[in-house]
């Protein structure tokens, strides 16, 4: 889920519903809610039906238990060196490649019920983004391009074949961004309750950059350092709070409509990476810089460059990113399909049986089109 790692969870504490990119290592505080609010658009109720996904959520927990689960390995699976940094990934199966990108604070292990099932027919990769999971906690400047570049290079150097790329929350935004940069390596994009925002057509062009140029010396030398010091204190506390297993469990249960899968496996996969000595600094950089600077790369700009089929698998019951966002993306991008899932922010883990069935059916339709075979009606397009 975009189990918003050490952040979405920590930031989502108090009264408001965190529009976070996940759920994970998070606490709660209005201080950062404003920064994170730009990352996701508010959701409103929307009813989208799909006969394929009519199974009730009350049985999802039992269904997940019946599925094969990716074994949890404390030392990780495979590693790839990217720009001198150690990147963790899981690789299983054979056939056409599928690349899974987790959300904020999560890891490849968040695809635990999806990797074994998808690997029965496809070659599946699940990669940990830099700074998350079992990948290196690099002390770099995290901005909107860093993970896009990582995923693009992963497709070039490791996968080495056109792939379907699937992303949840922050991973969805990263997936979409990468697909516009290396279109020759992406056969299709799947977004699960994706992060990102549409641009404001009424906003003056480059107002943000102009404002930065006019910053006074007093602001640069006094106000900014004081602000950063305050942020470090607040974020340091939030990070400490975010790594507590009880806190992670509480946040996860707030965004999983059916909390059956909020178990020790999931909680451990989120809290274990926080033991890294650099984890606190990475958290600070992510929350104080990356999350506060998203307006430059908007969904409308990225969708305007996208050239491949798009599937929106949306958890309609997500308290952070509602189905209205999926409807808007679908309206903007004609070559898209929307399928609603009766789940929250992380439908692939909360309702894995529904998610696996919907994704496999859509992948089959892509193969039929590529083979010039008449495609039978499958997923409902709205």
Automatic annotation (TrEMBL):
Chain ranges of the AB hydrolase-1 domain: 97-352
Pfam family, any one: Abhydrolase_1
Organism superkingdom: Eukaryota
Gene3D superfamilies membership: alpha/beta hydrolase
Signal peptide (residue range): none
Stretches of the chain forming a coiled coil according to its record: none
UniProt-recorded name of the protein: Predicted protein
């Amino acid at each position: 889920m975009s189990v918003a790692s050490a952040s979405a969870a920590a930031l989502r504490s108090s009264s408001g519903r965190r529009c976070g990119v996940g759920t994970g290592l998070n606490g709660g505080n209005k201080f950062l809610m404003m920064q994170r609010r730009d990352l996701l658009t508010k959701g409103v109720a929307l009813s989208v039906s799909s006969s394929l996904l009519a199974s009730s959520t009350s049985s999802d927990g039992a269904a997940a238990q019946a599925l094969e689960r990716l074994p949890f390995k404390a030392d990780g699976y495979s590693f790839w060196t990217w720009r001198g940094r150690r990147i963790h990934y899981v690789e299983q199966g054979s056939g056409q490649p599928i690349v899974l990108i987790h959300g904020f604070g999560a890891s490849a292990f968040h695809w635990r019920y999806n990797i074994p099932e998808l690997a029965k027919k496809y070659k599946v990769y699940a990669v940990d983004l830099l700074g998350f999971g079992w990948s290196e906690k690099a002390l770099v400047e995290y901005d909107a391009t860093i993970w896009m570049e990582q995923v693009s290079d992963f497709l070039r150097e490791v996968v080495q074949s056109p792939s379907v790329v699937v992303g949840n929350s922050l991973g969805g935004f990263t997936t979409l961004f990468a697909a516009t940069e290396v279109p020759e390596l992406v056969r299709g994009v799947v977004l699960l309750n994706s992060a990102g925002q549409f641009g404001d057509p009424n906003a003056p062009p480059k107002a943000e950059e102009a404002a930065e140029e006019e910053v006074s010396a007093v602001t640069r030398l006094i106000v900014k350092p004081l602000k950063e010091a305050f942020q470090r204190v607040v974020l340091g506390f939030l990070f400490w709070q975010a790594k507590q297993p009880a806190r992670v469990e509480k946040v996860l249960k707030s965004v999983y409509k059916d909390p059956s899968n909020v178990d020790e496996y999931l909680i451990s996969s989120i809290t274990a990476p926080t033991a890294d000595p650099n984890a606190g600094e990475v958290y600070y950089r992510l929350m104080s810089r990356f999350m506060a600077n998203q307006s430059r790369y908007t969904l409308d700009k990225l969708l305007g460059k996208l050239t491949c089929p798009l599937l929106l698998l949306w958890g309609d019951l997500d308290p952070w990113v509602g189905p209205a966002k999926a409807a808007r993306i679908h309206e903007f991008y004609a070559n898209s399909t929307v399928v609603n899932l009766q789940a929250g922010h992380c439908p692939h883990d909360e309702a894995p049986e529904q998610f696996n069935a919907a994704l496999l059916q859509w992948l089959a339709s892509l193969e039929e089109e590529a083979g010039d075979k008449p495609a039978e009606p499958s997923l409902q397009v709205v």
